[in-house]
Amino acid sequence: MRTAVTERVRKHREALRAAGFKPVQIWIPDTRLESYCKRCERECLSLAGDPHEVETLAWMAEVADTDGWV
């Protein structure tokens, strides 16, 4: 016997499929893990002072449309 929630979810998914959609599962890093934070820090430090990074950041600042952000 299906629960009411299970049935609603099934109907919702059927409606999405009928509308031409399909489910997709993606795996992303768990940003809550300490190992993730350490990896980010390590990668950021490896870019510090890199001429290509400096050039890229300068270009991003130049082309960024930040009007109305603050």
What share of the residues does DSSP label as strand, in percent? under 5%
**What's the gyration radius in Å?**
22 Å
Helix share, percent: 55-70%
The description of the largest β-sheet is: none
Low-confidence stretches: none
Count of DSSP H/I helices = 3
Main structural class? mainly alpha
Count of individual beta strands:
0
H/E order of the elements?
HHH
Outline type? elongated
Provide mean pLDDT, rounded.
93
Spatial separation of the terminal alpha carbons? 54 Å
What does this structure look like?
With 70 residues, this protein is mainly α. It has helices at residues 4-18, 34-47, 51-63. It has a domain at 29-63. It is elongated, with a radius of gyration of 22 Å. The N and C termini lie far apart (54 Å). The relative contact order is 0.05.
Compact summary:
The protein has helices at 4-18, 34-47, 51-63. By secondary structure, the protein is mainly α.
Lay out the secondary structure.
Layout: H1 4-18, H2 34-47, H3 51-63
What structural keywords apply?
mainly alpha, 70 residues
